[in-house]
Write a structure and sequence with these properties.
It is a single chain. The protein is an alpha/beta fold. It has one domain. A hairpin with a 2-residue loop joins strand 9 and strand 10. The longest helix is centred in the middle third of the chain and has 17 residues. The protein is globular and about 45 Å long. The protein starts with a strand and ends in a 5-residue tail after the last helix.
Amino acid sequence: MAQAVAYPDSWASDLALATPHAPPGDHAGLSRLPSEWLTIDRIVLDDVLIDHVVVGPNGVFAVSVDSDPEPATVEWDGLYRDGVRVTRTVKAALMAAHDLRQRVGHRFFAYPLLVTAIAGTDGQLDRLGVVPGGRIPEVIWSHAGTPLTRTQRTEIVWALQGLIE
C-alpha cells in the first residue's frame, strides 16, 4: 500500500478520481501503488493549490483534479469539452507542476497530471498527462521518469513539509 500523508478523506471530495475498480475507501486507487510511493494531499504554494503530490522511485507528480464531471476529449492541440477548448484547467495543472518544481528544487522535475472525466483513453498534451481517475496508479507506475533514490525522495518530502493545507 502507498503511504498517505494528510487527510485521506480529501480524496472523497474529488469526484473525478472515483473508480469502481478500487477497493472501498480508496477513491483514487492509489493504494495499488507499491509501498515506496508517498501521496501528499492538498499542497498550497503561493496561492496555487495542488490537489495531490505523488513521490516515488520514478519521479514526482503534481496531480490536479478537474472538478467538471462532463467528459472532455483530448485532441492534438488541447482539451475540449462540448467543442470548446478548455484552457484554464490545463494552465492551472501546468502551473501547479511548475510551482512544485521551484519549491522542491530545480534538479527535480515535477510531472504534471490532470485527472478529469474524459471520453476515450488518456492522452498527452505536450508535457501534461491527462488521465481518468481509475488510471492514475497505472500511469504513474509506468511513467518513464528520472529515477530518484530514497534519499532524494525524502529530501522532496521534507521540502513539502509545512505546505499541507
